Amino acid sequence: MFIPVPSRLVLHEMEKMAVHPVGIQIMAPKAELCPEKLFQVKSPSANIIKQEMLSMGCECVTVKGAINCSVPVGDVLLLGNKNQYRHLVEKLETMRAWFGFAEVIADLKAYLDETPLVTTLADGRQLTYEKMRVMGILNVTPDSFYAGSRVIQEETLLHTAGKMLEDGADILDIGGESTRPWGYTLLSDEEEIARVVPMIEAVKANFDIPISLVTYNSGVAEAGIRAGADLINDIWGLKYDNHMAKVIAKSGLPCCLMHNRKEADYRDFMQDVAADLADTIHLAEAAGIADEKIILDPGVGFGKTYENNLEIINCLEELNMFGYPLLLGCSRKSVIGLTLDLPVTERVEGTLVTTMFGVQKGCMFVRVHDVKENVRTIKMCEAILNSSN
After folding, report:
1. Lowest CB count within 10 Å: 31, 135, 206, 307, which one?
2. What is the pLDDT, as a whole number, of residue 35?
3. CATH T-level assignment (fold) for domain 118-386
4. What is the pLDDT of residues 311-368, one digit of tens each?
5. Is pLDDT above 50 for 132?
6. Which of 325, 341, 316, 333 is nearest to 368 (CA)?
7. Which of 50, 367, 372, 379 is catalytic?
8. CA torsion sign, 151 to 157 to 159 to 165?
């Protein structure tokens, strides 16, 4: 007689069998298959990696043409566990100078690095992620898609900010230009600055909470930084304004970099999103933005079809490969309205489901309009997920 044992229950079964703790430490990780995809590996390297993986009893998938090097580069899919990947790194270190192995080794080490993620603010304070963090939305705009988030007057802004803080928000996100995909007005830098700077200053003067500024314009970012913003939230991932990356790097502020495209034209959706985000990360690195200053946002509702939006929510864990905190922003968006056939005023429950997916998929942030409801959802979801630890 036998029964299959899911990998997540192997540790539990070992404890029931009274296995020695040292034995558990050695054997339990071997039960965890952790597929990992390496992008654009040179074919000679891919063949060596495949042979090393096979020698350890695991598997490696390479593209057609890699075996005879008829294609110069291709993606590699590793099918093993973290222990096997550590052994692979040890083997590859002896060949570091060959065929671009240095980059492969760096990628594997980044994946295996279990140092807890943190986001360091300019003043040295750190956002840690022992729990999901909540970013409350404050729109200093007359045309944001959800009227309930519009806080044009300072008195209204301070009241809403105080309520969000009371409800459990960890950071407040102030935006001066609507980013809705239709029916919005483009602003000059001067107009956007006139909206956001007084509000940033007002919140900083009244509350001890980090402030995020939503903008893709470097001039607005500079003004917001002088006013006291703690984080820049760029919905174009450093690709709209060529000066944005340098402005952020010089300031020492962390940044949230979102995936976006002008058109939802994809060959392989998730792979194309990953490639776009990799380009954004390279822009950040080239400008001197440190790793602990970067947060990624998959960009739900931006440059994506309805089907794309559902897929990226369902596949969020694939973006954890970059090793940066992920922010999920689905609050009251059209993907919820289209699914449930509901107006923006009735999308709280749909938002909470996406937040629950975010917790399960390893996101570190949610950006939401309804702080209290999302904080409670996160707390319940995390309690359930942590109950088996």
Report:
1. 307
2. 79
3. TIM Barrel (3.20.20)
4. 999 999 888 878 899 999 999 999 999 999 999 999 999 999 999 999 999 999 999 9
5. yes
6. 333
7. 367
8. positive
Residue 358 CA to residue 75 CA, distance in Å, equals: 27
Q: What pLDDT digit, counting tens, does each position of 151-197 carry?
A: 567 788 899 999 999 999 999 999 888 765 555 567 889 999 999 99
Q: Is 311 exposed, middle or buried (0-12, 13-18, 19+ CB in 10 A)?
A: middle
Gyration radius (Cα) of the chain, Å? 23
5 — pLDDT class (breaks 50, 70, 90): low
Residues 32, 40: Cα–Cα separation, whole Å:
25
Distance CA 72, CA 60 (A): 18
Concerning whether 150 is annotated as a catalytic residue, the answer is no
Q: What's the number of CA atoms in the CB half-sphere (13 Å) around residue 32? A: 16
Query: How many Å is the maximal CA-CA distance in the chain?
Result: 74
| 372 among known catalytic residues | no
- Cα–chain center distance at 258: 9
Q: Do domains 34-112 and 118-386 have the same CATH topology?
A: no
- In the numeric block, the tokens 């034209």 are attached to 265
Please state, in angstroms and rounded to a whole number, the distance separating the CA atoms of residues 304 and 272.
12
Query: For residues 321 and 323, what is the distance between their CA atoms, to the nearest angstrom?
Result: 5
- Tell me the pTM: 0.78
Q: What is the pLDDT of residues 34-66, one digit of tens each?
A: 777 788 899 999 999 999 999 998 888 888 899
Cβ neighbors of 28 (< 8 A, separation 6 or more) are: 10, 11, 14
CB 319 within 8 A of CB 357: no
131: left (phi over 0), alpha (psi -120 to 50) or beta: beta
Q: Domain ranges in the chain?
A: 1-32, 34-112, 118-386
Q: State the catalytic residue, choosing from 42, 261, 333, 347.
A: 333
Selection from 388, 381, 379, 377 nearest residue 360 by Cα: 381
Q: How far apart are CA 190 and CA 30, in angstroms?
A: 58
- The SS3 assignment for 263 reads coil
Transcribe 349-370 into DSSP letters.
Answer: HHHHHHHHHHHHHT-SEEEES-
Other residues' Cβ atoms within 10 Å of the Cβ of residue 114: 6
Query: Are 339 and 345 in contact, with CB atoms under 8 Å apart?
Result: no
User: If 0-12 CB within 10 Å is exposed, 13-18 middle and 19+ buried, where does residue 300 land?
Assistant: buried
